[in-house]
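Hey all, quick one. A colleague (J.T.) asked me to put the shikimate-3-phosphate job into the tracker so the inputs and the structure tokens live in one place instead of scattered across chat threads. No bug as far as I know, just bookkeeping. Sequence used:
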Amino acid sequence: MKLKTNSKGLQGFLEIPKDKSISHRSIMFGSIAEGVTEIHNFLHAKDCLSTINALKALGVEIKDTGSIIYVYGKGFKGLKKPKAPVDMGNSGTTIRLLSGILAGSDFKVTLFGDASLSKRPMNRILLPLQKMGVIASGINNTEFLPLSILGTKNLKPLYYQMKVASAQVKSALLFAALQAQGESVILEKEITRNHTEEMIKQFGGQIHFQGKEIRLTGPQNLKGQKVVIPGDISSAAFFMVAGLIIPNSKIKLTNVGLNETRTGIIDVIKTMGGKIIVNSYKGQDQKSGDIVVETSDLKAVEISGAIIPRLIDELPIIALLATQAQGVTVIKNAEELKVKESNRIDTLACELQKLGADITPTNDGLIIRGKTKLHGGKVSSHGDHRIGMVLQIAALLVYDAQVKLERSEAIATSFPTFFESLLAISK
Ligand code: S3P
């Protein structure tokens, strides 16, 4: 598709789509809890629909009225053997968390997904689940999809030092630990998003987490709840950056989730000298707020260490931000980018170079020299929603030339209304 170029500035308000991580989890918790869960503000994007369809295939009754979703949970025991292999689509969160949920069911399930998901590593969940007694493997004894999961009613608790900083792995193990006989202890490599821990508490479960240590004693029964989902900071990030780098811009993004395990991008923008104001308030379930950004003079920054999991999904758009900052930005310790919906170290470097950016891939990150003037070109999302959105925001800075994006449909994975939102604030 032909992207919007030649931006004269962004102005106005934008209500950001709702949080993808919390949307997935709200369906999952509703399914394994007892009683009705009522979900407000669910993100109707492709990834989250994969989760709904998977749990329906496992026998859970889910009614979607458009504005509210009702999940009629019957506890873990309410899950039934599906009639056929279950489709995970493009969604890493669905397959990894669902594997943990299935750990306590004594029927065999096959999980498959699209070409991108089929390349992503699964040993990170398969190996610890095997330690708990689950018979779990990828095809032909590899770690890749389709996965076969045969759980057990006699799950052993787990003491586990995590090898990667991953909320998906942590969450899979917590779902399994909820069904195990005894206390599980999970030690994180770095602190990652804590929505699963927060929702265990919200659904009436017992969990203790402090720093990198999480303790949970199973088995536990959860109770259905009302869940109100805030805006997704990972989607807001595209417009936060757009507002900072496009001349004549000032925009307000409303009702954005501000869980501190997710707000690394705000810290980075402040360090870079970006003009950003955050007005936070206690949302119905979660801390949320309005974010105002305006065109800024930016300076380069180093991003590494413990902050990486707090902005892992925002690194693609931060890479574009760095192309418009004065100096050399270095992103380190971000090797996890290689195993996202695409190898984001390679796809970012390759696609932004095509538009004239000075960006070099490294083993665990990127080196970006700014400030560069961008030019037209033909680029691809590589089927990765976040790469597609980065390229559209980059194209806004291209004047008097065209930018064509291949595989733009990937954007619907997390932000189906992205192009309409952009239009709504374009001058
Ligand atoms: C997610 C965790 C992150 C993130 C993904 C969503 C989640 O993955 O990249 O988009 O909802 O738990 P990892 O935990 O594997 O880093």
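Adding what we noticed when we looked at it: The chain has twelve helices and 22 strands. Residues 20-32 form the longest helix (13 residues).
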